[in-house]
Amino acid sequence: MTTNEQQAPLAPKDSPYLFDLSKTNLPIDEVFDRYLPVPREQCGNSVPISDTKEEGYSSIFQNSFSPGNVKEALAKEFLTVHSSISTMLKFHLDKQCLGVRKYDHDYHTLADEYSYITYREMNEQKINLGSGLLYLLQHNPFKDSSKYRSHEKIDRHHLDFDKYDEKDLSFILTIFGPNRPEWVISDVMCASFSITNTALYDTLGPDSSLFILSETESPVVVASKNHIHSLIDLKAKHPEQLGNLISIVSMDPLNLKTNAADQTLVNLARKYNITLFDFEQVVHVGKMFPSLELPPRPENVFTISYTSGTSGSKPKGVVLTHKNAASGILLLSMKNPKNKVKRGFSFLPLAHIFEREFVCLYLIHGYTVGYPRHGGTPLTLIDDLKRFKPTQMANVPRILTKFESALKSATFKAKSPIVSKLYTHIINSKIEWQSEYDGATGTHAFYDKVFISKLRKGLGFDNMETLITGSAPISPSTIKFLRAALNIGIMQGYGLTESFAGFCASNPFDKDPGSCGPTYPTTEIRVKEIPEMGYTANDPQGARGELLLRGPQIFRGYFNNEEETSKALDSDGWFHTGDIALISKDHGRLYIIDRVKSFFKLAQGEYITPEKVENQYLSNNPILTQCYVYGNSLHHYLVAVIGVDVHGIKKFLVSHCGLKHEAVSKLSGELVLENLIKKENRVKLIQYLNKHVPHLQGFERIQNVYIEFEPLTADRQLLTPTTKIKRPFCAKFFKSQLENMYEEGPIGHRSRI
Fold this sequence. Notes:
The chain is α/β, with parallel strands linked by helices and about 750 residues long. Among the domains are: about 1-35, no CATH class; about 120-320, Rossmann fold; about 600-745, 2-Layer Sandwich (GMP Synthetase, Chain A, domain 3). About 35% of the residues lie in helices and about 20% in strands.
């Protein structure tokens, strides 16, 4: 045992907490600085628990840090989101907290640089927002407590807040807007005033938004200005279903003195029994009528996170308590890199629990949190990163594969043979060095300072130390390339809404990337065999089957949906994820293979894992921007719907299809596509794409394609908020195109199997 381990104020192994802070006189922030993250040697594996193997199931696996016991929180002072943030607030009061590039709504101009509020200012806004919101709701002229239960809960909130639990919730506040400081302040306000919240997001569509607002009986929505008219319109069309909705708070300013449109909006809201205030007005009311915070208990529901999933069924509300959140905070804290500068960029939708888990981490550990610009998109991400310069960011594989493609175009495939040869040598050398042992960073003073730094600056990664990826599988080759090319660690995590996002994560510099790491002390795991697909607990590489989860981080039910709850949770408390996993025999690390329902079989019996195939095409072909692979048991080959980069395709038409550069450069996007979809050019494109996926077997390679510039969009309801493909929707939307491809037949040359 090292000196640090001897001094660490660890709680007993059988305690539900990581630390016992009564054992030390050190300030809590110093305890965290000294003893977090927990060393890889102590928690880098999971182990089978003896005598837990049953027929049809693997043994139960727990983290090697505390086998035989699961942990619930960092310490007894960190049992809720409110207590976690409040406990650490005094250490961060004057640090920069939330940052954004200010947008002038009158002149539609965007500031060049980020502006910040401190932790002290964030906390003051939070308290005033909660005080003002409760006052305005309790004095709302449209409140009818005799008719609506949520209105009665508003009246009784100060009396009942300390009695709430999973079965008896507060009234529910809804948040609807892009990532921005007001979103987070509203969220932590709810946590501090024992108000359960939920979130809407753009890709839901009006029907799902109506369903969520109706099911939750939400009386108030905090929304960005661009969503307010649609919310009023929704109530106008469904006055009975949305009778509970009586207040909207605009995240953006409303100028009632000089802006006639804003005054009209307020009047329109009032016409349908909705009061409309802006954020600053509510904060001002809170200053005039202050309220004490109303701290929640661990059993209180922190949020109801609705997930439409990839199957496209009716949204399910995942009920997540403060206890679930405290466990998620513990997991991330045990993995949180020891950075001198702490700057986290919040890019993934806050309506999704993955990003909210990270924002909780950031606020507890004193990060400066930056947000995308007003109206930001993946295309404007790089410019924001260059200005904010984060040290840490969570993102999804589809964005990271775009980074990979852009970097490969600038290095391996650079126009200059000298540049190409030089960067190929440097990056391949670093890949080799980083593969020598777990934790090898492959640092090279000269290469990193002179060459790698240029690539980092090009993406705004000047200070970046760690990327976290989740939501979908990512190719190990992508991780290896990005780690080497950018000199950063990459942690691949895995989790679901039902597990309060990630419960496991790989190490930033794993020798052999590809796993999601071990399960952490908050969650125990096992797999259920699927023998008909060849997945058994006795596989030589490790147990394979459907992944099951249990522990304090795992939800205990869907909101008002006993039928789906009973399908997901068995009588022993195991959550059946629907994901196929391997728990490796050597280190007990988790590998996600695919969704149970995503697998499909070709006519000759070969099983296809579509996400694996799609990721290979995207990470190895820069001209691709999107890829949806399809197959079925009636055909022996795969087809695909692909999105292409217009500039890359212009170059392809010149280099591979015989078109003249002068002619192609003048073509509109429509005419570029018209040339590309000619059969002879599609044949060449398929051959080109297949040439660059050497790791795929012959039957995994696509043999026909349907092409658009952006076929998979949220507007078409084909992507989830974290850009996962909604496969049943895609199969339905592209039904005629898929049928046409199979009718035309395989136009690519099949590789030998």
